[in-house]
Every structure is written in C-alpha cells, then in structure tokens.
Batch of 4 targets.
Target 1
Amino acid sequence: MRGRWIVRLALVGAAAVATLITAGVAFDPAVRRPPSRAADAAAAPGSATRELDAYVARTTAHLDQVPGDWQAWAQLGMAHVQLARISYDPAHYPAAAAALRRSLRVRPTGNAAALTGLGALAAAEHDFRGALRYALGATAADPYSADAYGVLTDAYVELGRYPEATAAVQRMLDLRPDTGSYARASYLFELRGDTVGATRLMQQALDVAGSPGDTTFALLHLGELAFNAGDLNTAAARFAEGLARSPGQPALLADRAKVAAARGDLAGAVTDLRAATAVLPTVDHLVTLCDVLTAAGDPTAAARTDGLVRIGARLPGVTPAATDIDLVLFYADRGPAATAVDKGRALLAARPSVSVETAYAWALHAAGHDREALTHANRGLRLGTRDAKAHYYRGMIRLALKDRAGARADLRQALAINPYFSPRYGPAARHALATLGGRA
C-alpha cells in the first residue's frame, strides 16, 4: 500500500470518527484517495487529452485578448496540471506554474483558485509541505472551495497528519460529495484498517462518478481494495469492467497482471505488465514485472527490467522530495542498501506518512539496522492498516532480532490479509513461517 493519491486512522479514535456525519453525508464508517497521476488517466487518455488541449487553446486565445482575467489564468494552470497527469508528461508543470503565478500577479489577494492550483501542482511534484501552505491559503481565501479542501486533505495525509486530514475531507464532503471526496475518505478508512468502510465509500465514489475517468478510477481502486484483501474474483471483475471501459489503461493492466500472477498465469501477467510499462513505466510496475519474470524463470529479462529502474532513477529531476516509496523498496531489496537508507531518510523528512515509515523500516533492515527498523515498522502500522507487505516487513525484522513469536504473528497476519500479496515476498513469508513452526 502506498500513498499514491496525490494514493489511509486509528489515531483519530471513535469520538473523532463519530463527528464525521454532517449535512447528511456520512464518513459512515459506511467514506480513498483521489485520482493519482496514473488513475487520472483512467478513461481514454487520448480523448481526455484532446479535450484539454482544445480547452488550453481556447483559454490561451481568450487571454491574448483579456490578459487581466485572473480566473482564466488559474483555470489554464489547472488544465496544464491535469494534462501532465493524463499524458504522464511533466513538461506541462512549468506551463501550469507560469499560468497560476500570472493569476496571482493579476489578483494577489483572495485568489483561492490560483492557490489551489499551486497546491495541486506542489502535490503532483511531491512537495507536500508546499501543497499544505498553498491549500491553507486557499481555504482561508475561500472556505467554500471543495477543491482547496481536497488539496489540504492530500497534504495532511502525506505529512502523516491524519486527524487534520479527516477534518479536511469531512469539510470537502460537506461542500461537494463527489468521487474525489468519497475517494479521499475511503483511503483514510483503509489506512485505519476499516476495509469494509473503505470499500463502501469507494462504491459511493463509483455511484456518483460524473465522468468516464471518475468511473474507471473508482473501478480501479475497488479492484485494488479487493485484491489487497485476497479476493481475487472480485478484483478480477472490477479490473475487467474498468478495461472494458478503458481498453489498454496501464494501471488496470498492471493490476490485472497481479491477479493473473496470483492465479499462476505468469505468462499472462508478463504480457499485461509489458503492455502497462510500455505506456507507464513506473517503478511499481517495473518492479512487479521484474518479480513476475523471476518467478517465471526468466532471470535475463528480469535483470534488464532491473536495469531500467536504475537508469530511470539517475535521470535529472529526481529530488529527495520526489523520491518514490517504491524506489526505496527497490534498493532495499536489490541493493545497494545504503542507497535505500539514504533515499528513505530523505523521503521520511519530506513525507512522514505511515507508508514512508514502512519503506524506511525495510531499508534499515536491508542495511542491518534492525532495532531502528523495528521502531519505524511499528510506526508504519500504528493506524491499524491491514497491509500484508507491512506485516511481512515487520515479521522479517522481528525474525532478524530473534523475536520468534513476534515474527510468527506478523507473518501469519500478512498471509491472512492477502495470501497473494507478492510473488517475491509471499514464498519467502511461507518459508520463514515454516521454519518458525507455524502455518499460514
């Protein structure tokens, strides 16, 4: 599980959850994350890009005639942020920043739209402290902006400030109960281990979906919630429905591949993952492809895929704040461990979320710092998240510390949550559990 939304609350407690029922909209436990960079492209990317390109052209022509239209500058900036997400092209970010800052120059006060856009841009670039600063400014300028509260929720989640995230998403729900608000709320319930509530809320996100992209996004995450709970049939059905609506969508293909691998269809999984990574070569998708190729007995192709990740990590523009959780885990598993620790430490400083705590714990374990690793593994699970990988990581850390009972409990929990959680770690979990005298 990763914070992909920019993408989970026992710390909030029952009293706080009870307050999340206002204006007829229940954070129920009957209210995940809003469309991430991959999920924003869930519906026919080409069509969505064409529509946004046309909008950008019209708005640019309008601004040539009316350069003082600060609202149009803000809308143009947000259109570029959306184009970057749909096309996977970060070249749109400078254009977004220029338009949003132009809006602020024209209207320096009370400009919630530009501040919200700059917050969304900062979040897209994984600068969550910047996103928080802009979002707070936007909500102060316009306390009725649901979009501003969405950015505020995202920032609080990634900064590990879960009670504040809960309050922000409740305000967003009160203002506009749409796919984005229900999705964010679903993610918060997932984080605190309430997968039933998270699924119910993601279903609500699907029910109110107002566009093909929103529909496919909700189906994607409903499938992921099912897969993470070990329900392969429901996951497969959700992914199939999403792909029927958006053929070739890379995030759906990658998720369908996980189901195929869990069912033993490694050839089918490789086919889907190759198609997904040809369009969206994220670290997550490439690592999954590498693991499936290894399981399929093709170490040469797995090594080539490993090399692609290493080459991509060295490309310009990869800053500590933007370091991906999956890249930390990649180096922890494949070395060098020191690189995993350095990147994990930088990432934790920028994004102290439970997901980053878990990744940093695994990096420390890889480097042999198991006592420190256990502290962070515990912090990663402090909300009660039902995350099979997080329990596997902590189980192996406990095993290294000779805490056999603790290791046995975590490994059992990992396999109970999702026996198909990883083609790499699943067999290792079963082997370790067998050596401890336990059963899956």
Target 2
Amino acid sequence: MANDPRDAANPMPRFPADFLWGVSTSAHQIEGAADQREPSVWDTFTAAPGRVKDGSTAAVACDHYHRYPEDVALLSGLGVDAYRFSISWPRVNSPGGLDFYDRLVDELCAAGVRPVPTLFHWDLPVRFDWLERDTAARFAEYVSVVAGRLGDRVTNWITVNEPAEHTLLGHALGTHAPGKQLLFDALPAAHHQLLGHGLAVQALRAAGATDIGIANSHGPTWPASREPADVEAAAFYDLLLNRLFAEPVLLGAYPEGLGDLMPGDVQADLKVISEPLDWYGINYYAPTKVGAPQGTEIEFGGIRMPAELPFSVQQIADVPVTDFGWPVVPEGLTELLTTFRDRYGDRLPPIVITENGCSYDGVDDQERIAYLDGHLRALHRAVEAGVDVRGYFVWSLLDNFEWAEGYERRFGLVHVDFETLARTPKASYAWLRDVLRAQR
C-alpha cells in the first residue's frame, strides 16, 4: 500500500526528532453551549433562518464540554505531542467559565499531551465588534485573565485564528458570523484583529509566556492565464488574502498603500502588531486559481462571490477534490512555504502548520489518508529545501459543526454520530497513529 507508513518501498520521510505533531479543534465547533457561556456572534448568526445550510446550531455540537475526558483519551491513543484547541471568550466571560479549561488543561497534562490554546477562533461575544478599535483592547484584557489562570501549565499560545477568513467571510461577504456585507469597508475589522493580536502578544509576554504564535491562513495564488488582466487580478488576491495579514505581523508594514485605508494611528499600531513571535502558524488547505472579474455572481467552495469583486475565483482543472469541492494540491504546500522563505527571509520565524485537513464522509476514509500522506510528503520537501518548519497539526480531531455548512462536512479523524455523540476512530486515525509511531 503506497500510503502505509510501514511500507518499506515507500516509507514516510523522517522529520526532525523534535518535530511537534498535533491535531486541532475550536471551541464553538465542538464544545456545545453547555451551561456557562454568554452569547457569541455565532449564536446570533445561526439563530437566523437560512444562515446555516442544514439549519443546525452549535448548541450541542460534539458536547466536548462534558465528554472531554473521552476526547483526551483519543488524543493519547493517537500518540500526538500536542492538542491545539481554542478558548471561548464568551465562556470565559461567564461566571466559572475558565474552570472548564482548567480541567481540560489538567487532563491533557496528565495524559502527556501539550495544550496549545488559541485565544480567538471566531466566537466573539455579541457585545463586541471587530470594526471597533476598543475590541482589541478588551481582547488583551481577556488574554491576561486566561494567561493568569493557565500560564502555569500552558507554554504554547496562539493569539488569533485566520483573521483573513473572519474578515472576508464574516464582515465583507456575510456568509459567516457576524454576517456583515461590507466588502472593502470591512478592512477595519482586519486591522483591529491584527492589533488585538499584537496586544495579546504583549499581554502574554507580561504573563511570562515564551512560546507564542499566530494562525494565519495562506495559500499560493495561481493566475488563470498569462493574460495581464488575470495576472493583475491574481496579484491583488494574493495581496488581500496573504500579504495583508502576513506583512504587518512579519514586516511591521502594510503592503502597497493599504495602510492608508486603515483606521487610527496606523504606524503606531504596526509597532504593536509586529511584536516579535516565536513561530509563525500557517493554515494550509489549497491554492487558489484567480482570474479577471467576470461580472457575474458565482459560488465557489460554498461561498457566494459577488459580481463587483475585482477578481474571479476559478476551478483548478485536473486535480482531485474533497467532498467540500476543495482542490487537493499537496505540492501547493511546498510552493507556499518556499515562497514565504524567499519573500520574507530572516523576518520569517520558524513555521508551524497549525491546520491542514480535508472533508470526506465515511469511517473507512482512504481519501483522507491519501490527502494527509501527500501533504506530509510535500511538507517534508519544504524542510529538505531549507524551510524551518517545527510542527504540523491536522484539522481536525473530531467531526464537528463546520460553521455555515453545519454538520454536512466531516473533517475529523474521529467520526461523531451527531444523534448519539458516539465517537468512532476512522481509518485515518489508525493511519496517523502508525505514522507517528514510525517517526519515533
């Protein structure tokens, strides 16, 4: 079997001995509302008819809030070094809300699994708004509270997850919470999330943290053709989805005049946004093929793209796709990492792949095995090319509430029956367990 890690003819390449192996989840997608959480923007969003494709909410999700010991046992059986989860700001704002994370962190430590919390993964309390500058300051206050409580056991921290998607989908296009359709007037939400990231780094440093990163989503942008209009559109898309969120953090500057569109004292803010990091997290799923605008509304990957956008997103031909319709292009990960190394040089800290995964149905998920096998080999090629990569996290441990898709998309290594909440490890879980054993 080509994808069998024990296959002597085609073994998985060996990663460095100190390479960090993990899996990822997020609070709103798995915890359930339980009994201690103030409303989030996602609670409001999912309550409106037509927002979520199957009409579902995350009121129960995987009920990780009550079943976390079972899920930590799954982590232990998988053999990962680390578990990336997120901390719900709305839960922390509720009386006793941090107690759950105390218990979870203790359970992880007892199992020998390193806790790697993300402090913002899209579940914003409804009383805040990333379009408002004050939200960044309130975020830093919340981070200080969490670090004060968990910092004696947590050494690795992630500030924010995918501010690009939260800006684009939540504030520009309205397909995610909070459901605003502001197009380019959504840029202040991007700036304030990045400012919140920088203030969170400062708050974590003040609490003694020494291992801090961010989880930004990135992917190569491929022009639809060599025609100047397609090349120009692809460059703009790369600017908007990659450089806009990487360069303030890594270089302390916005690209090509975008700083003029941001609110407040941008130069002072950039000094905060570019607080030095210990590593840079990248969520990778696929490249994007981009061409000149076509003047019509299209739907791509479950997202409605309005006609007035200055680019069009197009299908990549002759590659497999996941059940979500996303292209499977492992070599795009190698390209992305070498591009970042060449683009940012010594300003780029060590990299951790904080998310990589795919949506496929079924428990005998051979397609997911092939996907992970291909991406791990592509990641190793980047390491061989000299990119300093320190870790890799699979998305996701569990099938979960997949935002506006509801429960129709399954990204988990573990199948969840959303009627009974029974967990069943998939074939990919056993495959990854064997990969990790072989690595050691």
Target 3
Amino acid sequence: MKEYMLIFRHEDGGKVASPEQMQIWMQQTMDWLGTLTAKGNFEGKGNGLLFDDARVVHHNKMVTNGPFGEIKETLGGYVVVKADSVDEAAEFAKGCPVLQGEGNTVEVRRLAKDDGVH
C-alpha cells in the first residue's frame, strides 16, 4: 500500500466555531478515524494546524505573521492514510467531517517515498 496525505482546507478562513460545535466535529472526526483504523488504513499520523503561532517565509527571505484569519481559505490539518491507489484514498476522504462546511475540501496527495517515484 502507498501512503497518502489528506489535507483539510477550510473555506471560512480563521472563523472560530463554538465549543459545542468543536466537540461535535471532534467526535465525528474520531469516529471517522476509528473506522479507517479498524480497516487498517489509518497510518496513525496527523494533526490540526493552529493559527496563533505561525509565520510565512517569502522568496525574498522576508518573514511575516501568518496565516491570516481574513484569508478565504486556510489549512486546518492533515492525516496520513494507507491505500492501494489515489482513488481509494479519495474515497476515504469522502467520509471526512471537514466536508460538512460548504466550500471546504480535502486534498489527497501521495507521499514521496524511496520508491523511485518523484
């Protein structure tokens, strides 16, 4: 099996959900990951990404605070799954609770390994 990163993109920028909604989403995410784990497809890697301690390094070496909450789309986190193909990994992504937000997406990318694929 190959490893794929599922990258969670949030359309609403840095908008903060209520504590109750966060609890619901966290439980849904744990249930989704539990299903992938039971099938042997969750690699056990993943994390959310925070906004409060971030920087953007530009091509000219300038460093700015970021990412900014007012931007249209932000990266919310990622998980790594094992799948036989990118299509199978995309099927796993269809169950991700992140997709409940209108405009939110899950990007599916194969991880580069020492398998001769660049």
Target 4
Amino acid sequence: MFNSDNPTPEGVETLTFAQKVRLGSFLGLSVKNGLLNLVTLTLYRFWGRTEVRRRLWQAIYLNDEPFEYTGRGGELFRGFLYAMLLVGLPLLVVVAGAQFLGPKFAALIIFPIYLFLFVLFGFARFSAFRYLASRTLWRGVRFQLKGSRIRYGFSYLGYLLLSVITLGWFWPAAERRLAGPLWDGLRFGDRRFRFSLDAARKIPIYRAFIPAALVFGVLYFAVMGVIFAIGFAAQKAQPAAPDGAMIVLIYAMLLPLSVLGVLIFAPYQAARLRSVVAGISLEDARFRLEVKWWGMAMLELGNLLLLIISLGLLFPVVEARTARFLISRLKSSGTADLASAVQAPRGPGTGEGLADAFGAINL
C-alpha cells in the first residue's frame, strides 16, 4: 500500500541507531553485583548479568525506540544447572574413569573428549546467541535465531582444526565464516536478516592480521625466552628459590605483553568487525561499522585497565563502554519493512548454560 505523497510503501523505513548509555549507572551496578557475588559465592552472577543486559538494552535505540531485554536470572541459573548435570558431570565421570585404564587407554579416551569439548564450545556459542535473540524485543516484537546448534558446533571444530593445521593463518577467515550462521539465521519476528560472505570479504582483514600476528609472535617468543632463561639461571644459582618470585616475574612481563597485544591487534579487530557488519543486511537495509583501529585500541586498553584495577569488578562498566562505542558507530543505508513483522515464538526456556560454563559469552 502506497502513500500518494510518498512513493515509499507504508511500514518501510530507514534504520537509525542511537545510544544513551550512562557509564555512571553501571558503576554502582558493578559494586552491587560484586558484593552480592561475593556473599553468594558467585551464584548471583546470573541475576546480575540479567540486570546489566536490561539496562543496556533500554539504552540502545532504533528509530528513537528502545530495545527491551526480557530474560530472567532464573533462566540463566537453570540453564547452568542443566549443563552441569547433563554435560559436566558425565565428562568428569569419564575422565576420572580413564585414569584407571592406564596411560595408553586414557590417551585414547581423552583426545576424543577434547574434540567433543570444542564441538560443545561452538554449540554453546550458538545457543547463547539464540537465547539472547529470543529475549530481545523491539516495538514488542521478538527476535529469533534459526539454524542447527549441532552443525554450528562441528563447523567450529572444523575451522579450529584448519586454523591449527595452518598455524593460525585460517583463523581470521574462520571468525568471519562463524559469524555467518548467527546473522543469516537471525530474524526480527519473521523478517530475515542475511549474511553475505562476498560482501564481508570486500573489507580486507588479512593485511591487518598478518603484520599483527608476525610482530606479536616475535614478541611472545622473546618474552617466553627471557622468562625461561631467568628461571633457569635462578634455579641453577639457588635451587630452593621461592616460586613466588617467578610468579611475580611472569606477571610483570606478561602484563606489558598483553597491553602491546591489544595495540598490535587493534587494526585487525577493527577490520574484522567492519567486515562482519558489512556482510549483514535486513531486506534492503545494509549496515556498516565506522570504527578505526585507534578507537578500537583505546576502547580495549581502557577496558583492560578497568578490569585489572578492579580485579574484574567493573566488568559491567566494560560492557557498557563497549556497547556505547559500537552503537555510536553503527550506521545503515536502505530500508526495511519492520512494521509488518509477525511475532516470533518465545524461544528456549533456559539460557546459555553451556556458554556460561565455557566462558563463551560476552554479555
């Protein structure tokens, strides 16, 4: 149906993103979550994470209307319990049993278990994204994720093995390919997102990755060589030297290496994000992320500093800083018919238990 004054069909609109993230509100939330996690032996983290997401979603706007997060801490907690009972406990039993079979038989069992764990990591990543989509609403309409978690898990394993075989060379391509099923399977109601690998490839990533990997590789092996040399010399001169001194030395050298790693890989991280976003579309709407390497470096260095100084307490502030940084640089061109989107089903009843166990989630 067309409007006589405007040739654009009704319901079709351009997409404009905005954010109203206030870091101060997340500072108090960080302290609250940290204290409650301490009192509850980290069990409160499921409810704390839910509150962080709820505030973040409310501060992110599309066409002047905020997103809404409807997940619950109880769902995350139940998902974690299910993961521990259905996966964690059986794995512990198998590993413990393998210890009684002798080294040869144990190796035959442990190696497949490691491969299985990598499949589970991919499975968990897809499941976490699916849960987040199902609990995200805009204008009252849910998002949803279609696709196979099992297929994604085996894809993750395959890409990881290729990266190992190629000494890390394939990993940038793997990261881009792994983004495909997540974004290509995403729906706003019944409106489908698309991911074009060809469009993503128009943003080069290897010319940023290659020098970063080479420089960091040289620095890493140099630092490891110095640590081993100092440790060997200390043991030779004083065999009973305390382990605490070596631990302090290792951290004293690895911390600057981590900071340098952030700076060295910032151009690649910025290019990778630009590449993935360039591959995403929703009907005729195309997306781009206007992020430069210097801005990415300052964001990640600031986040690293906050986490180190607060011993992880300020993680909600880090998440808020990251969301504010990315959303303020997210742009769109073209249009999409969002008004006629049909409501999606609610989705899974429990949330991202495996992802929590593996640490495969960021938000």
